[in-house]
């Protein structure tokens, strides 16, 4: 049985149907801090086991793993970079204590599969946010000083250290990917790379868009479909192929002005303005690009979507969604 935490978040919502297909419709349990509000329920949640689970509640996490005989945990519950700077202590509770509760439950409960009692395996995303201002910013490699300057980055670095500890000390199968900005049509969740989604949404509605980062701030990105495929490929990769538990992963890098140029290919009359806010400092502390050659070497990672593919795909999805909403409220 697979337990997904943060199942109603930006990644969780798109990941659920893929996990159900891979592991079996009734073997995947969606959990989140609160059941989805009407606006968040998507068709994939019909007849699906859905539970409310606060990963900060150690007892509740243990009970869920024990009750549902969980053998695999996809731990997506997190507070992202921008919201984490507004609520740093809460971000530390969710991202660090929550992860420790997940790892402890996996270690302690041990569920019998094929006759032997085994710890649940754990996949938990990390982020390029673990790199800080003192890290080389171009082609940042996997093995480099991580001195993050945001609570989100600090907490994701701690997640990695905890995962490696549980792997080395207890043999727990922990796997993680340092995701770049992940782009999809679904609502962003308070990240710094969400400026791209704002530009797409505004360009479509108003033929003008505003970026909350300066036009030349370069960051690594990937499409949600590449993000989810990379997670599945790592989750199913044979253990003997892995040279590490945490991998850098990316598709391409882009700046707000390159995002604007990409949008103009599909909405020629769009205008852009750049109004940096508190998230500029967060973005400046992150790499311009990362080196994901270990992922490409160890388990054959190849990205499929570049910037223009993503711009076209997301603008089409947003336009279709607007059309459907207009019909619904006519
Ligand atoms: C954020 N989208 O902006 C997330 C991600 C690298 C960025 O971690 O916080």
Outline the secondary-structure elements.
Elements lengths: L1 E4 L4 H14 L4 E5 L17 E3 L5 H10 L4 E4 L5 H6 L1 H22 L1 E3 L2 E3 L2 E3 L2 E2 L23 H20 L3 E6 L1 E3 L11 H12 L1 E4 L7 E5 H13 L9 E3 L3 E3 L1 H9 L6 E4 L4 H6 L8 H7 L7 H22 L2
Parallel strand pairs: 1-2, 1-4, 2-3, 4-7, 7-9, 8-9, 9-13, 10-12, 11-15
Antiparallel strand pairs: 5-6, 12-14
Helix pairs in contact: 2-4, 4-5, 6-8
The structure holds (3R)-3-hydroxy-L-norvaline.
(3R)-3-hydroxy-L-norvaline binds next to strand 10.
Please give a structural write-up.
With 330 residues, the chain is of the alpha/beta class. It has helices at 10-23, 58-67, 81-86, 88-109, 151-170, 195-206, 224-236, 256-264, 279-284, 293-299, 307-328; strands at 2-5, 28-32, 50-52, 72-75, 111-113, 116-118, 121-123, 126-127, 174-179, 181-183, 208-211, 219-223, 246-248, 252-254, 271-274. The strands form four sheets. Strands 1, 2, 3, 4, 7, 8, 9 and 13 form an eight-stranded parallel sheet that branches. It has a three-stranded mixed sheet with strand order 10-12-14. Strands 5-6 form a two-stranded antiparallel sheet. β8, α5 (151-170) and β9 form a beta-alpha-beta unit. α4 runs parallel beside α5 and α6 runs parallel beside α8 (256-264). The longest helix is centred in the first third of the chain and has 22 residues, at 88-109. The chain starts with a strand and ends with a helix. The mean pLDDT is 93. Bound molecules: (3R)-3-hydroxy-L-norvaline. One of its GO terms (molecular function) is L-threonine 3-dehydrogenase activity. This is L-threonine 3-dehydrogenase. Pfam families: Epimerase (PF01370). Residues 2-249 form the NAD-dependent epimerase/dehydratase domain. InterPro entries: Epimerase_deHydtase, NAD(P)-bd_dom_sf, NAD(P)_epim/dehydratase.
């Amino acid at each position: 049985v697979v337990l997904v935490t943060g199942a109603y978040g930006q990644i969780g919502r798109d990941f659920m149907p893929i996990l159900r297909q891979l592991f079996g419709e009734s073997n995947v349990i969606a959990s989140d801090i609160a059941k989805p509000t009407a606006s968040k329920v998507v068709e994939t949640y019909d007849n699906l086991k859905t539970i409310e689970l606060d990963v900060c509640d150690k007892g509740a996490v243990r009970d869920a793993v024990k009750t549902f005989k969980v053998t695999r945990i996809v731990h997506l519950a997190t507070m992202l970079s921008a919201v984490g700077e507004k609520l740093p202590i809460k971000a530390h509770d969710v991202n660090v204590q929550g992860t420790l509760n997940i790892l402890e439950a996996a270690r302690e409960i041990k569920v019998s599969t094929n006759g032997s009692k085994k710890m649940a395996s754990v996949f938990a995303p990390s982020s390029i946010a673990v790199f800080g201002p003192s890290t080389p910013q171009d082609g940042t490699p996997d093995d480099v000083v991580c001195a993050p300057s945001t609570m989100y980055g600090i907490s994701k670095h701690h997640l990695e250290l905890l995962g490696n500890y549980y792997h080395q000390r207890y043999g727990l199968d922990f796997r993680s990917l340092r995701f770049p900005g992940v782009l999809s049509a679904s609502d962003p969740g308070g990240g710094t790379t969400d400026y791209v989604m704002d530009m797409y949404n505004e360009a479509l509605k108003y033929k003008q868009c505003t970026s909350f980062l300066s036009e030349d701030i370069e960051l690594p990105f990937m499409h949600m479909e590449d993000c989810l495929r990379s997670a599945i490929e790592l989750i199913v990769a044979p253990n003997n192929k892995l040279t590490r538990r945490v991998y850098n992963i990316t598709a391409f890098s882009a700046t707000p002005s390159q995002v604007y140029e990409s949008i103009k290919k599909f909405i020629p009359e769009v205008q852009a303005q750049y109004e940096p806010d508190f998230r500029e400092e967060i973005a400046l502390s992150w790499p311009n690009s990362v080196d994901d050659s270990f992922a490409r070497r160890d388990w054959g990672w190849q990205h499929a979507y570049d910037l223009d593919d993503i711009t076209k795909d997301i603008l089409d999805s947003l336009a279709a969604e607007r059309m459907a909403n207009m019909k619904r409220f006519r």
